Amino acid sequence: MKIVICGAGAIGSWLSTYLSVDTRGTHEITILDRDLVEERNIIAGTQNYFREQIGIPKVEALQFNIHKQFQREIKTVYQEIGYGKWPQEDDSGEPLEPNITIDCLDNYISRKAIQGNWAYSSPIFPKTKNPYELLHIGFSDQFTFAIEWAENYEAPEDNPKARDICELPGASSFVNMVAAIGSSVVQEYLTTGKKREFCGGKFLIREVK
After folding, report:
1. Quick one: DSSP state of residue 37?
2. In Å, what is the CA distance from 128 to each residue of 46, 118, 121, 123, 145?
3. Domains of the chain, with CATH numbers?
4. What pTM, to 2 d.p., does this model score?
C-alpha cells in the first residue's frame, strides 16, 4: 500500500521512522511537509533531525536519516495542503495516490483541510468520496493525545494560549510513545483491516509503595 504522512514534525518524523523499519519495506511511505529544520527542533529532542541539518527541508533531512540509519527508502513531497489542494505527485514526479493518509500536523486549518479533502473530494479522484483512508494523530499541551480515524474525527480548535508540548519536561519520551502507538495502529490496519483508536488522558501520577 501507499502511505502518505502529512507533517514531519515531532510525531510525523518518528512515525515515518518506525513505519519505515517495522513494515520492512513492504509498503511505500511518502512524507509531506513544507517546513525547514530549526534549531528549536534539535534542542527539544522531539524530532528525528540533527544539528547539521538546520535550514534544510524536513522531508529531505528525514529521507536522508532513515536511509542512513536503516537503509530504507521513503519518498517526499515538499508542499503545503489546503482545501482542494492535494498534491498529485511526489517530488520525483511519481503519482501520489495514497491508500492511507496520516495527519500528524499541529494546527486547525491544516487538519480541517485534510479532513475536508477526505470527506468531500480529491483532485486525484474527482467527485469520489473517501478515496483513501485517513488517520489523525495529535496531542495537546496537557500531555493528552488522540489517534482517530476520519469517520469519527473533528478537528480541534487552536488554543492561542497553549504551551508548546515539545518544550515541556518529558516531551521527548511522550512524543515517541504516541508515535509508537500510532505506528502500531497503522500496522494493524495494514495487516488486518481493523481500525483501532486511542484517546489518552492524563496519566495517573502517584507513588506506589
Report:
1. P
2. 37, 9, 6, 9, 31
3. 2-200 (3.40.50.720)
4. 0.89
